[in-house]
Specification:
By secondary structure, the chain is an alpha/beta fold. The protein is built from 13 helices and eleven strands. Helix 1 runs antiparallel to helix 3.
């Protein structure tokens, strides 16, 4: 087990997963409280935080609250008071569905702001109308096959407004505090033009010379981009370059944690073991299974790379590399599939938090496939 007496730097690695990020909140709570065998029942105090998508949000909140008396309680509070919604809905604290007809039946919301549904309806109609008009103009200007250009008109991102997420990130993460924090934070995004990983960090590091800084301007955009699920949310443009969900290439950012100096990694995943996800005939289940397979394959590859390097270092010393210990935490039961990514209902979020906390408390390194360094 890791021991701060040995001088090894610990890192918390938060995977992406939309609403499943609540699972990581519960798991990290147990780790920070010293209630997990993964830390030797010693409170986890990471010096490094890396995150993708929902993991970037969790990492950002924890790092910006690092001077608080209880950062974990602060993270829980934000999820319970700012992120959850009373009932399952396509509109939530992360996005708003266009048009959101259910707002007309939200009695508490109508009492607070009776004109909100009308304003939203006008804004949504104008937004979708302008976007469709632009697409039709492009359609008429282009040559080539008719069926190909007709498909280009169809765009699900028009139906989801990310404004609630913009508001959440801007108020829940203090990027001035992130920059001044002694803790290192790394956010993972995907450059949508080149298909390459782009990192954003609060501290420069020679191992990641191309990483960009989390300034007051770029910080919120980086977190928003890291969670911009392709096909649902439009890429976030930063200095004329579109960036999308970091989970496309690196859903569990182990390498950035190692490059930032991490010696002991605690990786909180959002995907259960494949055996707990039975194949199903629906398209949604098929897409979710493809996502899990891809994320799992990338994680297994990174873990095996660490394991192989550790074995090599036992016989061939290398001043540029060091042994890395990796602890893996993942859900012990199947989640809700792809639709669960946007289920921020209070019941579901509480259930995920409890599951994460319980799984971390009953963590077993042997069955989890952790890599230990003696």
């Amino acid at each position: 087990m890791s021991d701060p007496v040995l001088g090894r730097r610990e890192a918390a690695v938060f995977s992406g997963g939309g609403a499943y990020g609540a699972y990581a909140v519960g798991a990290y709570k147990a780790l920070a409280a010293g209630q997990s065998p993964g830390t030797g029942n010693r409170p986890l105090k990471p010096e490094i935080f890396t995150g993708t998508s929902a993991g970037a949000i969790n990492a950002g909140i924890l790092v910006s609250a690092s001077e608080f008396a209880n950062p974990v309680a602060h993270l829980e509070k934000i999820w319970r008071e700012r992120i959850v919604v009373p009932l399952p809905s396509l509109s939530n604290s992360i996005c708003r569905f266009r048009p959101d007809l259910m707002r007309w039946f939200d009695v508490p919301g109508l009492l607070r702001d009776p004109g909100a549904p009308i304003r939203d309806a006008f804004e949504d109609t104008a937004f979708v109308g302008r976007a469709m008009m632009d697409r039709w103009m492009q359609f008429l200007k282009k040559g080539g096959p008719l069926d190909q250009h007709a498909m280009e008109i169809f765009d699900l991102t028009l139906l989801f407004s990310p404004q609630p997420f913009h508001n959440l990130v801007g108020s829940a993460i203090d990027f001035a505090a992130v920059r001044s924090s002694p803790l290192r934070m790394v956010v993972v995004t995907t450059n949508w033009l080149t298909g390459e990983v782009q990192l954003f960090t609060n501290q420069p590091h020679p191992a990641a010379p191309k990483a960009r800084m989390l300034s007051d301007t770029l910080g919120p955009k980086a977190v928003l981009a890291s969670a911009a699920i392709p096909g649902l949310f439009a890429p976030v443009v930063i200095n004329d370059v579109p960036y999308a969900d970091g989970g496309v290439l690196m859903n569990s950012p182990l390498k950035p944690a190692i490059d930032a100096g991490g010696d002991v990694l605690h990786v909180i995943q959002m995907e259960p073991d494949m055996s707990r996800i039975p194949p199903a005939p629906s398209s949604f289940d098929t897409i979710y299974r493809l996502m899990v397979i891809n994320n799992r394959a990338n994680l297994v590859r990174d873990v095996k790379t660490c394991e192989a390097m550790n074995e090599k270092l036992k016989t061939v010393p290398d001043p540029e590399h060091r042994p890395v210990e990796v602890h893996l935490y993942r859900p012990s039961e199947a989640l809700q599939g792809i639709l669960g990514l946007l289920d921020f209902s209070s019941y579901r979020i509480e259930k995920l938090m409890k599951l994460g906390e319980r799984d971390a408390q009953h963590h077993d390194c042997k069955s989890a496939g952790c890599i230990l360094v003696n």
